[in-house]
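Weekly puzzle thread! Below is a chain. First person to post its structure in token form gets bragging rights.
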Amino acid sequence: MIRAFLVWLQTELGKGAGETAQSWSEALLGSLNFWGLLEGSHLIGLMLFAGTILVVDLRLLGVTFRRTPVSVVSDTILPLTIFGFIFVVITGMGLFFAKPLFYYHNIWFRVKMIMLAIALINILIFHSRIQRTQGSWDSDALPPAGARAAAALSLSAWLVVITFGRLIAYDWFECGKPQPAFINWAEECKASEKGAVALAGARP
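Winning reply:
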């Protein structure tokens, strides 16, 4: 069902009459300048968002700004974090819209989405539970173990999100190419136009 929706999104939505007519998705991907502008804007927004997250997490780990209360660091940077996140989401949705089937069958993208979910859940847990006691350790040079663990998980998750996002550009694992059975399964290659191709000598 998901793939059928993405096929419609990529090939049918906004498509006019005529043999040369393009869908909105195809037009966006084939645009001369807008695609590059969108991709570049996404990376700039990501640097802003990840940079502000880095500053707060390092303070929670007791690495930087040890004499500054956590609330001061967080409240000062929070507007930039929110702006960066919204900007990244909007531009990311635009990139996905341009070639949804490519991303759907890309293992790097799938792992990135899993880690993104983990990072967002970690943020939710931090703000709903750990931050409740912030008043008692706000000015401590070294916050409690729970806050440090959340910061460490945050840094790790966002690092994986950024790394795997970068790997999406490489075709080391792609449906239609000989690759391990696990990768074919993880990418749902059997459902793709290119199909699943096993490595030579591997069991089907």
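Puzzle host: Confirmed. Bonus trivia for everyone else. The chain is about 65% helix and 0% strand.
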